[in-house]
Amino acid sequence: MFAGLPELGISNGEDLKETLTNCTEPLKAIDQFQTENGILLPTLQSALPFLDLHGTPRLEFHQSVFDELRDKLMERVATIAEGKDEERYGKLEELLEKSFPLVKMPSIQPVVMQVLKHLPKVPEKKLKLVMADKELYKVCAVEVKRQIWQDNQALFGDEVSPLLKQYIVEKEAALFSSDLSILHNFFSPSPKARRQGEVVLKLTQMIGKNVKLYDMVLQFLRTLFLRTRNVHYCTLRAELLMSLHDLDISEICSVDPCHKFTWCLDACIREKFVDAKRARELQGFLDGVKKGQEQVLGDLSMILCDPFACNTLVLSTVRNLQELLSQDALPRDSPDLMLLLRMLSLGQGAWDMIDSQVFKEPRLVCIHFLFPLELEVVTRFLPAMLSVVVDDYTFTVEQKLPSEEKTSLTYPTALPDAFNKYLQENRVACEIGLYYTLHIAKQRNKNALQRLLPALVETHNEMAFGDIFLHLLTGHLTLLSDEFGTEEFCSAVFDGFLLASFSSKENVHRHTLRLLLHLHHKVLPSCVETLLKTLEPPKQSSDQVKELYTQLTEKLEAQKKSPAQPDEAPSLDLGLHPVTVPTTASTPTTPL
Question: Which regions form coiled coils (predicted)?
Answer without folding.
Answer: none
